[in-house]
Sequence to fold (470 residues):
Amino acid sequence: MKSVDVCLSPELVHLYDVTDKTVVVVDILRATSCMVTAFAHGVADIKPYADLEECKAAASAGYETSGERNGEKVEGFNRGNSPFEYMAEAIRGKHIAFTTTNGTQAIDKAQKAKALLIGAFLNIQAVANAVQELNHPTLIVCAGWKGRFNLEDTLFAGALAKRLMGTFKPEDDAVLAAMELYENAKGNLVAFLQKSSHVQRLARLNIHKDIEFCLTPDVYAVVPELQNDHLILRR
Amino acid sequence: MKSVDVCLSPELVHLYDVTDKTVVVVDILRATSCMVTAFAHGVADIKPYADLEECKAAASAGYETSGERNGEKVEGFNRGNSPFEYMAEAIRGKHIAFTTTNGTQAIDKAQKAKALLIGAFLNIQAVANAVQELNHPTLIVCAGWKGRFNLEDTLFAGALAKRLMGTFKPEDDAVLAAMELYENAKGNLVAFLQKSSHVQRLARLNIHKDIEFCLTPDVYAVVPELQNDHLILRR
Fold:
């Protein structure tokens, strides 16, 4: 039986050898929730950028630009970081360059993974299925907040690990802790996260609707996967 | 009201400005439990070393040597990493050079703290009292296991934060998670930690007695504190 573990911050990815692993990157609020929503609405591909200026420059190569810094849309970009911006028919067939404070940094740090999938509550069962199909040791990488631990990504990690139990075994203490926390929270994720500082920070930006949506499981059955520096729809 | 936060790994200490903070370093199994036990039995001072060779070399400067790598005593050292080795009358007045896989690394990384205290379940209320006396913003730094998250240090962090609630406020998600986990575990810490990979690793070394002792709260009322690169008894 293969193992599943959780890396609680992008700053800890170097402690893991990802080259033989499936890595699931998660940034619930809101990068990976946006990416999943975009693929569910027919985006062609998304190129993730850690660097803001490089992302801006991609506009001249035919990309539409998306993203945020510190939770707010970057000036001049086509789209920000709300999943509701990725639901219009206009997204179909588009090529998007995407940069965020945390999520695209985590993708960058884990890019040497054997397989790299994008996870969110929105597509959690589809991701669980893909992880089981791939059947490699699996590491769930939480994007966190500027390198620090956050609750919502950890709760997703616990929820995904729970769905893998029986076909995967827990590797280390971080996955045990994530599953414990998810058990405490699962009755009402929104209420549980009211305590979270990151959620309070985002709540000041008036995105309650985003938060509730991003915590909804199994809205979409798509799995974005990294191939040659681009996220594409996994077939 | 000052804040209390938790740093879940020494590899994340650089994300925090510790210069205005009280830092409590914890390595329950077993470095900080040993240090607290040693001060309760009259050790004069302990010089922590991140580097094994430097620690060895301290013997020629009049230090007795203590420590472990990967859970096992270093060959040629006077003492290993079991708290029961630090209870004899022979410890009184001694100068000890101490190096461990995780605990002394964490002390090294947090050494610029405004005040640096050594915490363990064994002295948890004494540490809570000292943190309240100092009344700075406080960061509990978990030693973890080779940079990764571990449960026992996180449970201590949650337990200490709980004792500070009312006089300190939680800063960020990590302290909220640590308190949640401690609530789940507090009925029986030993049983809760049976799931932990690190505890299973140590159990193979036949230290069940050490583990039970290290999880016992309020055995001693001493607080070791870093002063000029040495740990001394806080007065």
